[in-house]
Specification:
Length: 480
């Protein structure tokens, strides 16, 4: 049964969404239909890419759609950390500030470093003000639904296309709540394989190999939920037969306990899992709508959050000081602002985002090197066209591009990037002269870049960059 919709509020916010920007025909009505008719699970942690694919819609527009809808209160943003081995949701939170540098999977007993371009997923859940669904009250869910539908993700799939969580559910013998301060017991019969018992909170992790002759009677496994000594990964052997888990919750909070029996030879941690495409942290932070609509989002982690591969583009204007002298401060300022608008339009069209402006310079990020190179070529062309309408007011652009690992941080209450990759990108830009584009070798050798530059004059050289120990090979793309 579909829950009731707050009709006046839905109509009001959909009308505001319609006016937020130009949308493809019927896009808002498709979103409205989903809000009204989808079941509760389909309105919980919506994968923007899957939503787009199922309706043959453009990914970029759907990301913008959900971001605007979230800013208007139609949806809430969900951040989740996925375990790459077992596909559980290790942590979930409502904003970027909840993200940490490191996380630990209790089921796999493995720690990971957080990286924006890997297993940090961003999804969207309908607002309870618009339509209340069961997942707004997770503590009211059955233990089974809470564990498999909120603490696991269906986005990790096996080679046959089956979500790993479905395979885990098929192997599960029991998922139960542990009331605070109470004791209980769970009995299972096991003939062979491996018993895996765990608490999503990470306070218990048991692995029991079944081997040998059948046991003559019940085998009791005491489990002290809340005992710090139980945090260690407990591996033991037991005989086939009845196993009784004697559970004691020594805490003041309700716990959960899950038991699965894996067949002989089955290794959950070694399952060949891959993830269907999802909106990750890197893609979100490289979306201009996110940076425009959610300026208050900050990274609280003191060391920042890593991104393993980001493409950075820097621009600057040649002779801007002379421009101010020639046409006056007010005219020059207006001209430079118009140039910023042109650059942002180009950046957004090529799947990028403006990180900041520094004086007359721009720092932007892109998902792929080819996006950045295509944007650089477009910038140069559009500035050239713009200059034809500005007698004696020529804007002369210089561009540099580099890629690599960086750290996403909050600087001056704004999301920014830090690290040697950023430094090198800025230095590469400083090599460029009037209307030149310089790219590093890492960018030049990336997929799709050669094709973009095949018909252009490209010259290679080795440069010594300030603050960089090793010489860097760079490629100069001259103007046509």
């Amino acid at each position: 049964m579909v829950s009731a919709v707050n009709e006046p509020l839905l109509d009001e916010r959909l009308a505001a969404l319609e006016e937020a920007r130009a949308w493809s025909p019927r896009l808002i009505s498709k979103l409205e239909n989903h809000i009204r008719t989808a079941d509760d699970l389909a309105l919980f942690r919506i994968n923007a890419f899957s939503f787009a694919q199922e309706r043959s819609l453009a990914e970029n527009e759907i990301i913008d759609l959900f971001l605007h809808a979230t800013a208007l209160g139609l949806f809430m943003m969900d951040w989740s950390l996925y375990c790459p081995q077992c596909c559980c949701v290790v942590e979930s939170f409502r904003s970027l500030k909840g993200l940490h540098n490191h996380y630990h999977c209790a089921f796999c007993q493995v720690g990971f470093d957080a990286a924006l371009d890997e297993y940090i997923a961003v999804a969207f859940t309908v607002s309870p003000d618009i339509r209340r669904i069961a997942f707004h009250d997770p503590e009211q869910l059955s233990a089974w639904d809470k564990f498999f539908k909120t603490q696991n993700t269906a986005e990790g799939v096996l080679p046959d296309g089956q979500p790993l969580v479905n395979a885990k559910a098929a192997l599960a013998r029991s998922v139960t709540y542990l009331p605070a301060g109470e004791t209980t017991s769970i009995e299972i019969e096991v003939d062979e394989g491996t018993v895996v018992a765990t608490c999503p909170a990470g306070r218990v992790a048991l692995v029991i190999s079944i081997a040998g002759a059948p046991a003559s009677g019940p085998q009791v496994v005491p489990v002290a939920y809340g005992d710090d000594k139980a945090n260690a990964h407990d591996v033991r052997e037991m005989a086939p037969g009845k196993i009784v888990f004697a559970l004691a919750n020594k805490t003041s909070e309700r716990g959960m306990f899950a038991i699965a029996v894996l067949p002989p030879g089955f290794d959950m941690s070694g399952a060949p899992v891959h993830f269907i495409p999802f909106l990750n942290g890197k893609r979100l932070l490289t979306t201009q709508a996110f940076r425009d609509l959610f300026r208050s989002e900050v990274i609280k982690a003191q060391e920042g959050i890593g991104v393993k591969d980001i493409t950075l583009l820097f621009t600057d204007l040649k002779g801007s000081t002379a421009l101010y002298d020639r046409i006056g401060d007010l005219n020059a300022f207006a001209l430079v602002q118009r140039h910023f608008d042109l650059i942002q339009d180009v950046v957004v069209r090529h799947r990028g985002a403006i990180i900041k402006t520094i004086g007359d310079a721009v720092m932007a990020t892109f998902l792929e090197p080819a996006d950045a190179v295509a944007a650089a070529l477009s910038m140069r062309n559009e500035i050239d066209v713009f200059n034809r309408t500005q007698a004696d007011r020529a804007l002369i652009l210089k561009i540099g591009i580099h890629k690599g690992a960086a750290i996403a941080v909050t600087l001056n209450e704004r999301l920014d990037y830090f690290g040697q990759t950023v430094n090198i990108a800025a230095r590469v830009q400083q090599l460029a002269d009037a209307e030149e584009i310089f790219v590093s070798e890492d960018v030049y050798s990336a997929e799709g870049v050669h094709a973009l530059l095949a018909s252009r004059e490209v010259a290679s050289s080795v440069s010594k960059l300030k603050g960089v120990q090793q010489d860097l090979r760079v490629f100069r793309v001259a103007k046509d």
